[in-house]
């Protein structure tokens, strides 16, 4: 069984402090993955992670998502790549320390985009690594863009591309929470949403998109929409809280702990 | 004009101390490159660097060059990739600090080898970066190998593949010295060799291969042989000392400071 696991940037970094990884959380998650593999489960895992407070400052400063429009855009492109890669080194190194077999796959080394969408990427090495039982670790990164010079590709955009090619059984998106009707960290009357599909998303849209909605990296609504797009290519996507111990392990093994997103 | 510049692992790391980069040297070299670009020269530069004391210990421990033969080969493969990438982060970060536009290109993310030779690698992104005036920074890395599982690809092997496709004007290999008849750090009567080609290499072979010869990462003789192979695809390869201030700048601009290798 092939599963994709995303570790959100807000989960594995301290968003309030630039270049600060939440090593405790990364290590705990690595151990949850290691437990699954130790149990001899027939599971191949691809991990992707966001950049959080690592590339956030430089990406904003240089407006890297807008392309090569400014005089300093190309310098910015290089700096954002460096910042994104720095966190990736920490994630992979932590995985290795726990005993996992994991290897970086730098998206910007091979992927090419057109207007923010990956249109070309030779992923043969990712396929071989998965076959060999090694965890490929991709990450939100800069990308060359044939329309505007460069862009930012999120882990979700990467997963969408990879899911279409590799057809995973399940995609787990671990952030700070599953989907609620309102931001659960602010509102006590926030209700958890069990399931979302292309028909029910409209109802949810009004509540999530409203002023009580989420507002982290583009907001929970856009996360749900991206999850729905990924869900086109696999049985189910689950948006879960990676803060709760054991959730990631449970979700990877098929237990329901978050919001199910089905096409 | 397109040039390739290799920074040898023994030049940019302290070979006697694991995981110790020679930051002073990397920064000085970055400044030499920056000076060339500041002067508005029509030059596009691709940089490659060795791993030196970063992946050396893990690569030797796990015999990564032998493939996936051992039980711990795959763990070793992951560790060597991590170690190689660590030095690459330091190199790229130092380049950025000096004001260069430079971006990592992780070879193992895209290249595929067969019996230690790269046989497949989509290098479109490298071509675009060069066109945009951004320095792609490749490095000696692990590589998936369709014959033996994995292998180690040196910067020279990478340059050979890239030189055939990109046809650089010149390739500069900066190490601790140009080519001498004997190891110049040990023998006072060592004589510098000005030029080598496929006909004169035989004469040199006996002296370099002898007991007074070099013995750093496979030795100077194998470096010269690889340089000769690269020389098939460009006008000239120059093996220089990167320890001497100004040498890299001079060599990149066409001045002779080392040993010329022509096919």
Task: Describe the protein in words.
The structure is a homodimer of 263-residue chains. Chain A has 263 residues and is an alpha/beta fold. Chain A is 40% helix and 21% strand. Chain A has an eight-stranded mixed beta sheet with strand order 3-6-2-1-9-11-12-10, with helices on both faces. In chain A, strands 5-4-7-8 form a four-stranded mixed beta sheet. In chain A, helix 2 (23-38) crosses helix 4 (73-98), helix 7 runs parallel beside helix 9 (219-231) and helix 8 runs antiparallel to helix 9. Chain A binds chain B through residues 68, 74-75, 77-79, 81-82, 85-86, 89, 92-93, 96, 99, 101-112, 120, 122, 124-125, 128-129, 132-134, 144, 149, and chain B through 68, 74-75, 77-79, 81-82, 85-86, 89, 92-93, 96, 99, 101-106, 108-112, 120, 122, 124-125, 128-129, 132-134, 144, 149.
Q: Mean of the pLDDT scores of chain A?
A: 93
Q: So how many helices of chain A?
A: 10
Q: Based on CA inertia axes, which overall geometry of chain A fits?
A: globular
Oligomer: homodimer
Low-confidence stretches of chain A: 211-218
Distance N to C terminus of chain A: 20 Å
Describe the strand arrangement of the main beta sheet of chain A, using strand numbers.
3-6-2-1-9-11-12-10
Number of strands of chain A: 12
Greatest interface: A-B, 38 and 37 residues
Fraction in helix of chain A = 25-40%
**Strand residues, percent of chain A:** 15-25%
Structural class determined from secondary elements of chain A: alpha/beta
Kindly provide the radius of gyration of chain A, computed on alpha-carbon positions and rounded to a whole number of angstroms.
17 Å
- Written as H for each helix and E for each strand, in order along the chain, the element string of chain A is EHHEHHEHEEHEEEHEEHHEHE
